[in-house]
Design brief:
Strand content: 15-25%
Number of domains: 1
Distance between the termini: 26 Å
Largest sheet: 8 strands, mixed
Order of helices and strands: EHHEHHHEEEHEEEHHEE
Helix content: 25-40%
Structural class: alpha/beta
Shape: globular
Length: about 230
């Protein structure tokens, strides 16, 4: 079973060697070059818009330290996933089965080596949006395994699996928004801890702080609806 995951705006700096490595061999060089060239010629205001922040950093993605994608991202979902405090066996499970969708790199395995970067969600590079660019490239991807889709809906623009399980979180009957990221991270962590590798095992597992109250059957997915308890 593969777990589809979103990236985060928050990222850690630093890393080791400077060679990027990707498990999915799709065409991304053109978009990375476009990004690199834009950074070199963009004005301060254009950079602020692209980064989605007032903080401007000199970024050379082709000559920057790299680290695992799952360690590069540091947002809420990754905080609750807490990769570094998992046993090695559970880390290996995520390295092989967690798939992250990136505004800059398209599709990543958790173990892929990537540099620090900033690219605001939905922000085009010289008129080209990453979701449009990678939608074509990801048509080549054929994930044969069962799929749990824990991404935010925006990333369906990059790739939409033929069939998957999705999850929705309620608190007192109302949809959880911001803290949904935390629950996604906790679910991914429990899956890794328990080596849940199939829909069958997923259905038999009882997640902490979550009560499954309904399964809605759709044409191309199942929507599992959970009532939450305080984190």
């Amino acid at each position: 079973m593969k777990i589809l995951f979103a990236p985060s705006e928050a990222k850690s700096l630093g890393g080791g060697e400077s060679d990027m490595r990707f498990c999915f061999k799709i065409e991304r060089e053109e978009f990375l070059r476009r990004y690199d060239e834009f950074l070199k010629k963009a004005s301060e205001e254009e950079l602020k818009k692209l980064f989605g922040t007032k903080e401007l950093l000199k970024i050379d993605i082709f000559n920057s330290p790299v680290k695992k994608a799952i360690l590069r991202y540091t947002g809420v979902a990754y905080e609750y996933l807490d990769y570094l405090n998992l046993e090695k066996e559970s880390q290996n499970f995520l390295d092989e089965n967690l798939i992250i969708f990136s505004n800059l790199f398209g599709i990543l395995c958790a173990k892929d080596l990537i540099p620090f970067y900033k690219l605001k969600q939905g922000e085009p590079l010289d008129g080209v949006k990453s979701e449009n660019y990678y939608k074509e490239k990801l048509k080549e991807i054929n994930l044969q395994e069962e799929i749990l889709d824990l991404r935010a809906g925006y990333y369906e623009k990059f790739y939409k699996p033929p069939y998957c399980i999705k999850m929705k979180f309620l608190k007192n009957g109302k949809t959880v928004s911001h803290w949904a990221k935390a629950y996604r991270g906790k679910i991914a962590r429990e899956i890794a801890l328990n080596k849940i590798d199939s829909f069958r095992k997923l259905k038999n597992h009882r997640f902490k702080e979550l009560t499954l109250i309904e399964i809605q059957q759709k044409r191309d997915h199942e929507m599992w609806i959970f009532e939450t308890t305080p984190l």
